[in-house]
Amino acid sequence: MKKIIALLLATAMCVMTLTACGASKETMKEGVLVVGTNLAFPPFEMVDDNGNPDGFDVKLIEAIADKMGLKVEWQDMEFGALVAAIGTKIDASIAAMTITDERKKTVDFSTPYYTAVQYIVLPENSDIKTAEDLKNKTIGVQLGTTGDYAAQEIEGATVSAYDKAVYAVNDLLNGKVDCVIVDQGPATVFQNNNPGLVAVSGVEFDFATEDYGIALPKGSPLVEKVNKALEEVIADGTYDKLFNEYLATVEE
Length: 252
Ligand code: GLN
Known about the structure:
By secondary structure, this protein is of the alpha/beta class. It is built from nine helices and 13 strands. The longest helix is centred in the N-terminal third of the chain and has 16 residues, at about 1-15. The structure holds glutamine. The site of glutamine has 12 residues, from loops.
């Protein structure tokens, strides 16, 4: 009788916690990597003509998951909600996310997979030419991004934060903001899609470069596995293929 009760208890514990029952607790669903992103940051993450996730990050993590024997399930959310969702709603996030000390308090990052810098998107005839000129301007950014944090450091600047970078660009076109600070990749896409707008490298505005990483739950065994799979994806040429397909056009 005691044995039966012990067995029942063990089964109940397995059901309740989904741990230590043989099934791996590394991902929320067996065989699946639930990945969160914000599908509004081309060319890293966007939707294709059929409404499916597409972009460099999308294809990169799908290749990584494949090496790990996992299928990717996508969760599209606001960028600012991603970090808090890791380990609860999602297993991982790939979202052109810069590795920062602040974020590292909450999540672990994979080894960096891309280096970027903030760009300034401006009307062609803008008088903003140097870091000095950004002072006291109205600046559009995407909420909770490194562009947002950089803008907040600028003396006298009024920062307008939007859920999506493209909304900031719309207000730039409407004349409601003087410029938009956003990562190099989308900045270049916005320039290419909008005659009259130019994207200028933030290096000329004293912005430091930033490394993108895949965010994972703190202390998770997934970190090592993702890093190993990333190495494999680089070694077998997949990374370069994706780079040429999605990023070659946004590189200088
Ligand atoms: N790289 C920026 C950041 O990490 C922006 C990322 C994004 O908006 N998807 O804050």
